[in-house]
Write a structure and sequence with these properties.
Length: 263
């Protein structure tokens, strides 16, 4: 991070040391939750003495842990903050998901990538049809068999996706679930090319789901619409996908809440 950005933020009224500490936490999260001082210096642009001083404070307060090998990891006190921050997500997301329901006639969902799992954090069901899809808020699933999971993993390098799949395995939820890492990576390449993900009876027989990632979200997030395969057709996707992308952009702005996230 260029020093000029740090000075610019501080000149605007922020507390520089607090801003820098938060930047370091974000860089640690981007690195998978664990990193070393030299890696933080390279990614943040801050001087090593400054990073060392801030990390000592974060360790002392429990927001960061230091391993015996002197590398740093995100600490347990962040869990409570994350859980508390996740609760309002449903409130923020519902008006946007309601737009999806109104525009598509199908149930809309929002999900996050939490560790190796996908967790559903918000849903607005359709009332237009008697046959509709319900996914319990708080439900955790493996990402390889869901549209939101594909949308989320498409933003990661292939090596990270392979490592995740090796940790979770690829159990088949239906006979159409992709259970080969190579085939799954090929599917992610298609997601990147066309700009949306599709779950075609891979999580539940007879159910199709179309999903897109939420761009530049503070945490990896995706939204989707799901319904019976007879309604969520390829032809229907032509009108659903543009609306999904529009809502995803608006939701990203609502989640960010800041015009410039640089520190």
């Amino acid at each position: 991070m260029p020093p000029s950005d740090v000075r610019k933020s501080s000149a605007s009224g922020g507390v520089q040391s607090l801003e820098r500490a938060l930047v370091l936490l974000e860089h640690m999260a981007d690195a998978g939750g664990e990193t070393g001082l030299s890696e933080l210096a390279a990614s943040s642009g801050l001087p090593l003495p400054t990073i060392h001083r801030l990390m000592r404070t974060l360790v002392a307060t429990g927001y960061v842990r230091q391993h015996t090998n002197r590398r740093y990891a995100l600490g347990p006190r962040l869990i409570r903050l994350g859980e508390s921050a996740a609760r309002p997500l449903s409130t923020w997301a519902r008006p946007h998901l309601a737009r999806l329901v109104e525009g598509t006639g199908e149930t809309a969902n929002m999900a996050l990538l939490d560790g190796d799992d996908v967790v559903y954090v918000a849903q607005v069901p359709t009332l237009r049809h008697s046959m509709r899809m319900f996914t319990e808020v708080g439900r955790r699933v493996l990402p390889h068999s869901t549209g939101v999971g594909k949308a989320l993993l498409a933003g990661l390098p292939d090596a990270e996706v392979r490592a995740l799949l090796a940790r979770t395995g690829m159990p088949a939820a239906t006979e159409r679930t992709i259970t080969s890492p190579d085939l799954f990576l090929a599917a992610l390449r298609e997601v990147r090319e066309r700009g949306y993900a599709l779950d075609d009876s891979e999580q539940e027989v007879g159910v199709r789901c179309i999903a897109v990632s939420v761009p530049d979200s503070p945490t990896a997030a995706a939204i989707s619409v799901s319904g019976p395969a007879g309604r969520v057709t390829d032809a229907a996707a032509e009108t659903m996908v543009p609306l999904l992308r529009e809502v995803a952009r608006d939701l990203a702005a609502a989640l960010d809440g800041r015009p410039d996230r640089r520190i």
